[in-house]
Design goal:
By secondary structure, this protein is an alpha+beta fold. Helix content is about 20%, strand content about 25%.
């Protein structure tokens, strides 16, 4: 694949912009000092490491990543009151060419005041697999409640509570008290404001909400709020495995 085409697939701009980056000597291959200004140069893309204006990048046919979402960001391309979570990502990830929408897309959403693990990808099958309720992908939430958590509240969440938009009970797949005001809640559904509404249904209130796990993927302890990293191939395979 020619170098400008590689840059285009990775989100470094339009085909014309990518051609200009190469012609202007702003792209290096193999090392930051190994400039390649020949737009007809051909490289095997898989595993290729290149530098655009000094920024290191590794070619990836599909993008799979995790982000530690901080509070105060909306999971929307068109946020209304808070900055978009996508502004935490480098421009190439936001500009990767795709199908209906360009760039990586969040797998589900977290409210602006909710923190924790967010997965993003430009692979439609991956997003569907993790978002579809019928696949029952477990998500673990750490909940800080306003009032002390009682054992009857835990049991009610496990047995199921009725929310105002559905007469069928919604239950936690797992639930345990953590300290006096905390809950660790596991859900496989994805209803609107589900954790907050479930906790309210047992006469308590969510003061802080944090997602610590999606399926087999736990938010790494060394990933700070606002930071992101690539998922490893084995992590993607584990997420896509049939449950």
């Amino acid at each position: 694949m020619q170098l400008p085409d590689i840059l285009f697939t990775q989100g470094f701009g339009t085909r014309r912009v990518c051609l200009g980056l190469v012609q202007q000597g702003r792209v290096s291959v193999g090392g930051p000092a190994q400039v390649c200004a020949d737009p007809s140069a051909v490289f095997e893309p898989e595993g290729l490491v290149f530098y655009v204006e000094g920024q290191r990048w590794e070619y990836r046919h599909r993008a799979y990543l995790m982000l530690y979402k901080p509070a105060g960001f909306e999971c929307s391309q068109r946020p209304s009151a808070w900055p978009s979570v996508y502004t935490l990502l480098p421009a190439p990830l936001r500009q990767r060419p795709g199908g209906a929408a360009s760039g990586v897309q969040a797998v589900g959403r977290l409210d602006q005041d909710t923190t924790g693990l967010l997965l993003l990808s430009d692979d439609g099958a991956f997003i569907h697999r993790l978002s579809s309720p019928r696949h029952h992908v477990p998500k673990v939430y750490e909940v800080t409640c306003r009032h002390p958590v009682s054992e009857p509240q835990v049991q009610r969440l496990l047995a199921g509570v009725v929310l105002d938009d559905d007469p069928r009970p919604v239950r936690a797949d797992a639930c345990e008290a953590v300290g006096s005001h905390g809950l660790r809640l596991t859900l496989t559904q994805g209803k609107y404001h589900q954790v907050k509404r479930m906790v309210a249904a047992v006469s308590n209130r969510v003061e802080a909400l944090h997602r610590s796990r999606i399926g087999p993927i736990t938010l790494p302890a060394d990933l700070a709020p606002g930071q992101w990293r690539w998922l490893e191939p084995e992590q993607v395979q584990a997420l896509m495995a049939k449950g």
